[in-house]
Amino acid sequence: MIYKDIIETIKMIEEENLDIRTTTLGISLLDCFSDDYKKTSKKIYDKITSISKDLVKTANQVGDEFGISIVNKRLSVTPISLAHAKSVDEYLEIAKVLDKAAKDVGVDILGGYSALVQKGMTKSDEIFFDSIPYVLEATDNVCSSVNVASTKTGINFDAIKKLGHIIKKTAYLTRENESFGCAKFVVFANAVEDNPFMAGAFHGVGEGECVINVGVSGPGVVKTALENMQGATLDEVAEVIKKTAFKITRAGQLIGNEVSKRIGVPFGILDLSLAPTPELGDSVAQILEVMGLERCGTHGSTAALAMLTDAVKKGGIMASGNVGGLSGAFIPVSEDNRMIAAVEDKALNIDKLEAMTSVCSVGLDMIAIPGDTPESTISAIIADEISIGVINNKTTAVRVIPAYGKKEGEMADWGGLFGVAPVMSVNPYSSEDFVNRGGRIPAPVHSFKN
Fold it and tell me: pLDDT class for 17, splitting at 50, 70, 90?
């Protein structure tokens, strides 16, 4: 049995795109913040470079020794809005220091240029919001996120109203690169503090001094397991997904523990989300199609995705006592070649994606829309998705890119892991009067549990 398991694992690695998508080192910066942003910046740089100096080298060594690729090495930090900088320029200087620290230690990307404003915004938060477009334009490796709602507090609609403008401005400032700045920015409801995936990773204030969080992935492994199940019932399909997720998770647990031990940082959580890449065969949409859907997005897609997400969670929980983060299935359009094909074939649109997000890991992810989309429409798209998260007591998010100068049907190409996205249409009718009301949407009745 052990020999069989070893052979299966080798096959998953060599033929089915099994990898460790990321090892993310979370670092608390709470002891770095002060009234002087220059002192804050120096403390931030010194702490990040000291704690994470061996992360990349160690992760590469572990990956080589175990024969499992660790694709990304990342950092997440305490939400930077808590630095309470006094101006946009001060926040921008702090962000540049984060970018330099990330480059100097060799990580792929850093998350945590973030704010938590689910119930309201301070004056410092408002300044932070104003800084986001400039930060995303001026830095290469810094990702930003904001949490605008939770099931417990309701929805900060004033924040959502501002975000339409912020996203459009970011798209304009980074227009020479297909509005790529927007690909580094995500809006959350019910954001989690230990998410290792970008662009939404941050080191929550409830976390310890530092921690290693690992994100595994294996859409290709699940797809291959299901290809031999023609004629099987859906409960039989779910059982195979669960067993496959178990094996994927065990591999991630092994790698996470080893990296944690070698760099002397506690192991935090294992996020077992199925995260696709542009590589052929590494697609969540293809899993749904192997289940029997002619094209992802057709009727039945939400049911298939719900079953997939649930089975992945069940298998992961059995394999590790440290499952956390988001854990389920991602459906980013630009990073999944079969999602792209489904959009091009008119099988998949934003409305269907929104329905599918009610049962998957996150939400509307890496979606390109026309560059002339009104700010109020972007805010309304965010509001719809955030509402799904609040009502269903789950994490949802929006990462949408109004590609400057692009029209429906054209392509936005960001290369690498971010992929290529067909520009998708949005509803032509206005949401402006609704968005301009602002205020707060109260928490749902089931939020009252104390």
Answer: low
